């Protein structure tokens, strides 16, 4: 009897030795295998994050494919209409301001023979037209997120940019060819400073609204106002340089050509980007 008990005690497992156990039917893994599966878990998390990113990208693309802008997923209806009204107000203010600046700049260009003033006047007219296009873009409350309407507005802006840039470049080249010298006075300085400040302020406001509404038309309008601000200050710069050094008479015309080329390049890019998108979204336009 005692021998059988001793045999059972000898055959009992040592409690210090950990035996493989199961938890929910799964065998416990040794430490080596656990260390190998740890990176796999991190890789799985990375794959999940990549899938989420790709899903969000596909969602944005899907929104655009349905004829809507990205703002439709960011703004609720009340916010969208509030920003739409702000865009309309800014466009009306921009039309009034730039129309006055255009008249003043044309007067300066004729009285003082300034090619850059003529270029700014043309850009101010372009700003009036681009703001009018933005007014049309947001005139329909139901079309605040319409991608098709957005792309049409951008194509019209691109055409206007091309026509205006050609006029600015031709006028600047003509003034350089006949060696037209600008005249400098207080009126020219006043117009250039006021134009630069007002157009720069309008550009900042339009950029902010365009970013919120994801509107390429508003951003383009802001770019045009920014160009107008740069041109206003360039008039001041070229006039000041000519005042102190008459040998640099060509600076005024050169600035006009440079700004004309910038406007042309932006117009071409706008047409290249937006014409194909009009064809893609024409089946989704339901707001007219």
UniProtKB/TrEMBL annotation:
* First-listed, main subcellular location of the protein, grouped into a coarse class: membrane
Q: Which organism is it from?
A: Pleurodeles waltl (Iberian ribbed newt)
Where found in the cell?
Answer: Cytoplasmic vesicle, Secretory vesicle, Synaptic vesicle membrane; Early endosome membrane
Membrane topology label: Multi-pass membrane protein
List where Polar residues composition bias occurs.
Answer: 18-39
Q: Where is this region: Disordered?
A: 1-39
- Alphabetized SUPFAM superfamilies for the sequence: Cation efflux protein transmembrane domain-like
Record flagged with keyword Zinc: yes
Q: What is this protein called?
A: Transmembrane protein 163
Question: Which GO terms of the molecular function aspect are on file?
Answer: zinc ion binding
Family statement drawn from the similarity comment of this UniProt entry: Belongs to the TMEM163 family.
Q: Which InterPro entries match?
A: Cation_efflux_TMD_sf, Tmem163
Residue ranges annotated as transmembrane are 87-111, 117-139, 151-174, 186-205, 217-237, 249-272
Q: Which PANTHER family match?
A: TRANSMEMBRANE PROTEIN 163 (PTHR31937)
Q: Where is the signal peptide?
A: none
């Amino acid at each position: 009897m005692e021998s059988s008990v001793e045999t059972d005690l000898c055959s009992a497992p040592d409690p210090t030795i950990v035996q493989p156990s199961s938890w929910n039917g799964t065998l416990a893994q040794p430490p080596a295998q656990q260390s190998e599966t740890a990176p796999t878990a991190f890789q799985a998390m990375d794959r999940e994050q990549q899938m989420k990113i790709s899903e969000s990208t596909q969602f944005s693309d899907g929104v655009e494919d349905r004829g809507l802008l990205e703002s439709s997923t960011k703004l609720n209806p009340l916010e969208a209409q509030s920003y739409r009204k702000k865009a309309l107000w800014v466009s009306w203010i921009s039309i009034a301001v730039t129309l006055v600046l255009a008249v003043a700049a044309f007067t300066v260009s004729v009285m003082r023979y300034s090619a850059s003033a003529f270029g700014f006047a043309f850009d101010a007219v372009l700003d009036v037209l681009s703001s009018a296009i933005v007014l049309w873009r947001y005139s329909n409350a139901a079309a605040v997120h319409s991608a098709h309407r957005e792309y049409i507005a951008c194509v019209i802006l691109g055409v206007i940019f091309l026509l205006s840039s050609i006029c600015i470049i031709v006028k600047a080249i003509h003034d350089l060819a006949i060696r037209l010298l600008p005249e400098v006075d207080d009126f020219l300085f006043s117009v250039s400073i006021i134009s630069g400040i007002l157009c720069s302020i309008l550009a900042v406001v339009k950029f902010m609204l365009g970013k919120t509404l994801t509107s390429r038309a508003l951003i383009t309008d802001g770019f045009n106002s920014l160009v107008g601000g740069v041109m206003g200050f360039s008039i001041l710069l070229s006039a000041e340089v000519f005042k102190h050094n008459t040998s640099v008479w060509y600076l005024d015309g050169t600035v006009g050509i440079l700004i004309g080329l910038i406007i042309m390049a932006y117009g071409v890019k706008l047409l290249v980007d937006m014409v194909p998108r009009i064809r893609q979204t024409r089946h989704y336009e339901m707001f007219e």
